[in-house]
Amino acid sequence: MNGDFLALLPKVSFPQTGASFPAASSHEPLQHLQATTVFAFHCTEGVIIAGDHRATAGNIVFSDKTEKILELDSHSLMAIAGSPATAFEMARTLQTSFEFYRRSQLQNMSLPAKIRALAQLLRNNLAATIQGFGVVAPIFAGVETNDPTATPQIYFYDPLGAQFEATNFAGSGSGSGSIKSILSYLERWGHPKPEEMSIAQAVTLANRLLMTAAEFDTATGGVHPDQRLYATIKLVSRAGIRSLSTDEQEHFWKETP
Amino acid sequence: MTEEPYRWLEAIGNRREYIREQMKGGTPVFALSRPEGILLVGVGQGSSKVFEIYDRHGLAALGHPVDIEKLRQVAIESAHVEGFNRSSKDVTLRRLISFALSTMLKNSFEQIFSPPFIVECIFAELGEGGAQDVLVRVHFDGHHHYETSGVLVAHVDLKREAEAADWLRKQLQPDQSLTHAAGLCLVAWQALVDEKPFAELTVPGELPKSIAGKTVEAALLDRKMPGPVHYRTLELK
């Protein structure tokens, strides 16, 4: 009994996670669903991780109410860009896997193990990734709960499962180019820099970044402060995960210059 | 030997005696349905007796630590596979105990060439309100019953177990704090261990929060805890 939920599934005749697809055919390309845009950056209180609400299929807006920031356990979460079907399944697998480990082993899984677990699922999704559908390029944020002095960390992945630690910020999805450019600028010349921002400033910045990205990317959308529609924003800190409500975001939006 | 039915019955009888003999050193565990959630209390020495099983499920057990561990792992595996396969709301004690645990315990008890589970336990499932809470007393042979009074005790001696539960039902009021309720459990625990009659047992002016030389374990399946996980350990202060 090693607390490995993925090893348990085949024992109970449950299909292995990870897709296995036949070779691509010459048919019309499938207009598969995509979810964009997500990003994370450090602020004074921890890591802000945010995403818009839009999911698209080709040039169709499939939904403007998609939740892309998914809590995996009390101290880690994943932001998804790419195919929601695969990403939601990965998140569900990780949620169960982390809790299964914690309950069965009576200790928390270490942060490096959580980071590797997501990499493993991405690697298992290789067949779908190579064929260009079911691709997921997530961001992971979490805190090492076994170390009382640890601070939150951000990791981003390529669709094949390679993981990279982001020292300042990470972004993924079609709108992330604009966002990463702005964050890079602010890291160099901002007053304050994102990592020096209070929670109010950081939340307002996150909403402004998504609104800016939406100007240049039709697949990014759903943030309209005038209609009380704000981004999905969560704060990861040693205390755990805090979801920023619409009321809080509106308050910060109005108060922050 | 087992080809002769009466010998099999004798072997089963011996097995029951053997398990009860092995359980003699065990001390009781408690589950109380309270307005705040379900309180689980156990007193141990070295090994744990109170555990989290799933989002809304807990276990309190006495017996051989290895058997408690085996039962716990089976319960956790079954609950997580069910929750993953369907949803966390589909994980119910009724299904978990009927289809996974009691069958396994009964088989283990009746297969006389393999070791039985030396364990007595309580499983708890948190509901929306106290009326929806589920407490189940599960015995080493797979026999189990659902308790509707909101108070459940598991002990080696079933007669004394029932007396302790009756005493607790009389003492408990909905407006009492969790610390008070846990303190009453500790009074009942001491009475069971010391074999004091419950008819003469009075509530002390100051309820105990600890037992000398032992570790008191208390946990709450918290009704108001945000998020999917409702289990948290309690420190008695």
Q: Which structural category fits the helices and strands of chain A?
A: alpha+beta
Low-confidence stretches of chain B: none
Q: Characterize the main sheet of chain A.
A: 5 strands, antiparallel
CATH fold naming of chain A: Glutamine Phosphoribosylpyrophosphate, subunit 1, domain 1
**Helix count from the secondary structure assignment of chain B:** 5
DSSP strand content of chain B: 15-25%
Low-confidence stretches of chain A: 21-27
Helix proportion of residues of chain B, in percent?
25-40%
The CATH class of chain A is identified as Alpha Beta
Tell me which protein chains meet in the greatest interface and how many residues each side has. A-B, 16 and 16 residues
**Terminal residue distance of chain A:** 55 Å
Please identify, by name, the CATH architecture of chain B. Answer: 4-Layer Sandwich
Spatial gap, N to C terminus of chain B: 57 Å
What's the order of the H and E elements of chain B?
A: HEEEEHHEEEEHHEE
At the first level of CATH, the class of chain B is: Alpha Beta
Which shape of chain B, going by the Cα principal axes?
globular
Largest sheet data of chain B: 5 strands, antiparallel
Could you give the order of the helices and strands of chain A? HEEEEEEEHHHEEEEHHEEH
| Strand order, largest beta sheet of chain B | 8-1-2-9-10
